[in-house]
Amino acid sequence: MAFVVTDNCIRCKYTDCVEVCPVDCFHEGPEFLVIDPEECIDCTLCVPECPANAIYPANEVPEAMQEFIALNAQLAQAWPVITEKKPALPEAESWDGQENKRQFL
């Protein structure tokens, strides 16, 4: 079972999670990170590192965010791997916790 990055990462893009990943399964887009389900080894290290609480086990993704399971798999194929921590997006704090950000991808 892989982990899934969900809605709250959008427009925040904290990368603390990337730093602890032992298999480099994170991929970076302009506004969002995703996890490649084929690379994720279910180690759980990323979950407590996410300041936005945006990472869930695939079987615990909230009902309203189920589309993010397929979205992570799809975008991981298109976006480059990210392996090092970078600064969050400039307005990350103001976007953290806002709901329904899918439209900003």
How would you portray this structure in words?
The chain is of the alpha+beta class and 105 residues long. The chain has a single domain, classed as 2-Layer Sandwich (Alpha-Beta Plaits). 24% of the residues lie in helices and 11% in strands. The protein has 4 helices and 4 strands, in the order βαββαβαα. The chain has helices at residues 16-20, 46-49, 67-78, 92-95, and strands at residues 3-5, 26-28, 33-35, 55-57. The strands form 2 sheets. The chain has a two-stranded antiparallel ribbon with strand order 1-4. A hairpin with a 4-residue loop joins β2 (26-28) and β3. The chain is globular, with a radius of gyration of 12 Å.
Keywords:
Alpha-Beta Plaits, 105 residues, two-stranded antiparallel sheet, alpha+beta
Concise synopsis of the structure shown:
This protein is an alpha+beta fold and 105 residues long. It contains 4 helices and 4 strands; from the N terminus they run βαββαβαα. The chain has a single domain (3-82), classed as Alpha-Beta Plaits, CATH 3.30.70.20.
Sheet with most strands: strand arrangement: 1-4
Average pLDDT rating:
96
Return Rg in Å: 12 Å
Supply the number of structural domains. 1
Number of strands: 4
Q: pLDDT below 50 for ≥5 consecutive residues: which ranges? A: none
How are the elements arranged and paired?
Blueprint: E1 3-5, H1 16-20, E2 26-28, E3 33-35, H2 46-49, E4 55-57, H3 67-78, H4 92-95
